[in-house]
Design goal:
The structure holds 2 protein chains of 2 kinds. Chain A has 5 helices and 3 strands. In chain A, α1 crosses α2, α2 crosses α5 and α3 runs antiparallel to α5. The mean pLDDT of chain A is 91. The mean pLDDT of chain B is 93. The chains are: A alpha+beta, B alpha/beta. Chains A and B meet through α1 and α2 of A and α10 and α13 of B. The structure holds pyridoxal-5'-phosphate. The site of pyridoxal-5'-phosphate has 13 residues of chain B, from α3.
Chain lengths: 142, 398
């Protein structure tokens, strides 16, 4: 991916993230907190999962440019997907961050983090929202 | 000053994270290497020459610490694994027996985790009550607020001499006098003060003092617990083993060694203690007053230069300190730190282990510059140059 485009997408998602602000008083949503143990990112991500579909996702909190943008792009990528599809994306995304083989077509915009391995101290930031996704699946036994 | 003694600066690193740990001068490294290459032996054990030398060198460091913090006796100096270890021993080895349910301990919300969490656990275990001295003006501790916070139940005040986030200096002398007058024990976390200024436990009526070697040019994994002698007599060893008992019998009877040996069970961190001794020699050679004065000057220069940059927000402008806590407007602290790292400038982003301070500061995370005597105006100039062109921060870090 072209470096300028990559940066533009990340920056746009950092400065105007998708669905920032939690939905209040709606018991259909489950909130999961993700705080990065090795740094100071602290995000609440809120999922509405119905009939095996990720119907809606919101988030709030304070985090760095990489974590925030990754959360925003994850939200864009997952809304409307089934749990199974989301798990596939999760798997391939983790593989990309870890420099293993992955299906780039599946990840679409999430490909902007395909060179994050060059900055090992930022891998955790890029993975942060997906840690919360894993947590919510575990919590709901999905 | 003294940069030639620090080999690490040849790597081009600009190190402004001295609150976290400090660089080591050649003298300290050499003293550790000498122990490992010229006279390795255990302490307090053998009857041969090298072992005797180890004993002598190890015990000499106690006297150096005594001189550094102006304690009455060298037996009042206990070597520990660091400030955290020292504070835990004070709380669980002494306070657990000394305090009872309902007794109050005064802390502040700007304390390091190691001076809050042990107290929280003690509160759970025996029902002591933790109260916080309010920090309204510039987040500083005022005598007025100390006096207001003291009740009939207050038994202990435990605070940092210098905090690790804002670096503000607490009026320990006045607080020590209040404590003495009211029969309150005064515990001081000296992790950020002993490396930078004169600390005088006698003059300031400090009953317990904790600090770490690695924040004052010394090795990691070693620190000091100072306790007034009559209090150390009541301190319970939290670790038992060799080197701390005078005798023990099969029926379970045992006798402790004298103070401070009874608090140093097992083979101590001999290399660490010897390195600490060399670090103290180094600091006292320069002089703590000179270090303090130089850092104050350097901070003033840094503040002046930062004021040239409009998008820098400073959280601890008008206080005595060798730290600066700042943010770039609309930039997350960690992104700023990562940006500076691209130019080999080390600053720390975060809440600096003082996670409840955000209640007072109304900002969760900051970048912290913590200076030491080996920092220079030239390094500050480089920082300023980099901050001045920070409008392209996302080009650099993304
Ligand atoms: C004020 C203060 N107290 C205690 C500590 C704990 O020191 P150590 O981690 O060396 O035990 C620190 C270290 O960051 C500190 O800044």
């Amino acid at each position: 991916m072209d470096a300028n485009i990559r940066r533009e997408i990340i920056l746009d998602n950092y400065q105007n993230p998708k669905n920032r602000g939690l939905v209040e008083n709606d018991s259909d949503y489950v909130v999961v907190n993700s705080n990065n143990e090795s740094c100071i990112d602290n995000l609440d991500i809120q999922y509405k999962i119905q009939d095996g579909v990720l119907v809606d996702i919101h988030f709030d909190g304070e985090a760095c440019a990489i974590s925030t943008s990754a959360t925003s792009i994850m939200i864009r990528s997952l809304i409307g997907k089934t749990v199974e599809e989301a798990k596939k994306i999760l798997e391939n995304y983790e593989a990309m961050i870890d420099e293993r083989e992955y299906d780039a077509d599946l990840l679409q915009e999430l490909n902007v983090y395909d060179e994050i391995y060059l900055q090992p101290n930022r891998k955790k930031c890029a993975l942060l929202p997906f840690e919360s996704l894993k947590k919510v699946f575990k919590q709901l036994n999905l | 000053m003294n940069r030639e003694d620090f080999e690490i600066f040849n790597t081009g690193v600009i190190y402004f994270d001295n609150g976290a740990t400090t660089m080591k001068p050649k003298q300290v490294v050499d003293s550790v290497v000498d122990y490992y290459t010229k006279y390795t032996a255990n302490a307090h054990r053998g009857d041969y020459e090298n072992s005797l030398k180890v004993d002598t060198e190890y015990e000499k460091v106690r006297e150096k610490v005594q001189k550094l913090i102006h304690s009455e006796k060298k037996e009042e100096i206990v070597f520990t694994a660091g400030a955290t270890d020292s504070l835990n021993r004070i709380v669980f080895g002494f306070m657990k027996n000394y305090l009872s349910e309902g007794d109050e301990v005064l802390l502040t919300k700007a304390e390091h985790a190691s001076n809050i969490l042990p107290w929280m656990r003690l509160a759970e275990e025996i029902g002591i009550v933790i109260r916080y001295i309010p920090l309204p003006e510039k987040n500083e501790v005022s005598i007025e607020n100390v006096l207001k916070s003291i009740t009939d139940k207050t038994k202990v005040i435990s605070i940092a001499h210098v905090t690790n986030v804002l670096g503000d200096v607490r009026p320990v002398h006045e607080i020590g006098e209040i404590c003495q007058e009211k029969g309150i024990l005064f515990v001081v976390d000296g992790a950020q003060s002993v490396p930078h200024r004169v600390v005088d436990v006698l003059k300031d009526h400090i009953d317990f003092l904790a600090f770490s070697a690695h924040k004052m040019l010394g090795p990691t994994g070693v620190g000091v617990l100072y306790g007034r002698y009559d209090l150390l007599e009541k301190l319970e060893p939290t670790t038992l083993g060799g080197g701390m008992n005078a005798s023990f019998l099969a029926d379970g009877e045992y006798e402790l060694k004298s103070i401070p040996s009874r608090f140093e069970a097992g083979t101590p961190n001999i290399a660490g203690v010897i390195g600490l001794g060399s670090a103290i020699d180094y600091l006292l050679e320069i002089g703590m007053e000179i270090i303090q004065k130089y850092e104050a000057e350097l901070r003033k220069y840094l503040l002046n230069r930062l004021s040239e940059i409009p998008n820098v927000i400073i959280y601890n402008q008008d206080i005595e300190s060798s730290n600066i806590a700042f943010n770039l407007k609309d930039v997350f602290a960690q992104d700023t730190a990562i940006y500076l790292n691209h130019y080999h400038i080390c600053v720390r982003a975060g809440n600096h282990c003082a996670k409840i301070l955000k209640d007072e500061l109304h900002v969760a995370n900051t970048c912290r510059i913590s200076l030491y005597f080996y920092n220079t105006k030239e390094e500050i100039d480089q920082l300023i140059e980099v901050l001045k062109k920070s409008e392209d921060i996302f080009k650099v870090i993304l």
